[in-house]
């Protein structure tokens, strides 16, 4: 995309990438003098600190600067920094961003007599059951559940199983939130912004 004399493309980093932001300068020649490149990178980084969707940082992206133009009189660090911010916002909106949430791998162990109640509760928490096994009189269930839906689960599990259920939970991955949750978060952010 081209914006304010900056040509660039933005792409996601691989999920196993270590960094949250990469900037590559692929300009050949002096289309943009090299002393302005740090200002462009700073503008992109600044724009990534607060995404317009819900105000949270935009992470795991690579921005590649491919071309540009400068003017001997009007070019300045501030002009290129602002051009980078504007260029990022243009791409960000066009990309139709999504919100990610942490998803946990949860392993439950409880007496089999409570299986219907416990699995029903996992479904209500938008969990996906990926494994189910028997260990004597107990059922072991492995599932993937959004972290946000696991708050207070220890108390809920004890209540459902008369204190006989237990679980472990570990981070698995980030995944997109549902469309209704995304709309709730976006609307809440807009409401907060309008009161500021």
From TrEMBL:
<keyword id="KW-0251">Elongation factor</keyword>
<dbReference type="InterPro" id="IPR035649">
    <property type="entry name" value="EFG_V"/>
</dbReference>
<feature type="domain" description="Elongation factor EFG">
    <location>
        <begin position="98"/>
        <end position="185"/>
    </location>
</feature>
<dbReference type="GO" id="GO:0003924">
    <property type="term" value="F:GTPase activity"/>
</dbReference>
<dbReference type="GO" id="GO:0070125">
    <property type="term" value="P:mitochondrial translational elongation"/>
</dbReference>
<dbReference type="GO" id="GO:0003746">
    <property type="term" value="F:translation elongation factor activity"/>
</dbReference>
<dbReference type="InterPro" id="IPR035647">
    <property type="entry name" value="EFG_III/V"/>
</dbReference>
<keyword id="KW-0648">Protein biosynthesis</keyword>
<dbReference type="InterPro" id="IPR020568">
    <property type="entry name" value="Ribosomal_Su5_D2-typ_SF"/>
</dbReference>
<dbReference type="Pfam" id="PF00679">
    <property type="entry name" value="EFG_C"/>
</dbReference>
<protein>
    <recommendedName>
        <fullName>Elongation factor G, mitochondrial</fullName>
    </recommendedName>
</protein>
<dbReference type="GO" id="GO:0005739">
    <property type="term" value="C:mitochondrion"/>
</dbReference>
<dbReference type="InterPro" id="IPR000640">
    <property type="entry name" value="EFG_V-like"/>
</dbReference>
<feature type="domain" description="Translation elongation factor EFG/EF2">
    <location>
        <begin position="1"/>
        <end position="96"/>
    </location>
</feature>
<dbReference type="InterPro" id="IPR014721">
    <property type="entry name" value="Ribsml_uS5_D2-typ_fold_subgr"/>
</dbReference>
<dbReference type="GO" id="GO:0005525">
    <property type="term" value="F:GTP binding"/>
</dbReference>
<dbReference type="Pfam" id="PF03764">
    <property type="entry name" value="EFG_IV"/>
</dbReference>
<keyword id="KW-0342">GTP-binding</keyword>
<dbReference type="InterPro" id="IPR005517">
    <property type="entry name" value="Transl_elong_EFG/EF2_IV"/>
</dbReference>
<keyword id="KW-0547">Nucleotide-binding</keyword>
């Amino acid at each position: 995309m081209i914006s304010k004399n900056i040509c660039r493309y933005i792409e996601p980093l691989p999920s196993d990438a270590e960094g949250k932001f990469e900037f590559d300068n692929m300009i050949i020649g002096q289309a943009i003098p090299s002393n302005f490149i740090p200002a462009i990178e700073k503008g992109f980084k600044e724009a990534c600190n607060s995404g317009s969707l819900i105000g949270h940082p935009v992470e795991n992206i690579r921005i590649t600067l491919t071309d540009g133009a400068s003017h001997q009189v009007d070019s300045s660090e501030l002009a290129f920094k602002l051009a980078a911010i504007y260029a990022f916002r243009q791409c960000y909106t066009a990309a139709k961003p999504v919100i990610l949430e942490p998803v946990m791998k949860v392993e439950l162990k409880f007496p089999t007599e409570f299986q219907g109640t416990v699995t029903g509760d996992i479904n209500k928490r938008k969990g996906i059951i990926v494994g189910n096994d028997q260990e004597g009189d107990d059922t072991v269930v492995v599932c993937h559940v959004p972290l946000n839906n696991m708050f207070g689960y220890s108390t809920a599990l004890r209540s459902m199983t008369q204190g006989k259920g237990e679980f472990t939970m570990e981070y698995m991955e980030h995944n997109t939130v549902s469309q209704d949750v995304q709309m709730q978060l976006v609307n809440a952010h807009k409401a907060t912004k309008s009161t500021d």
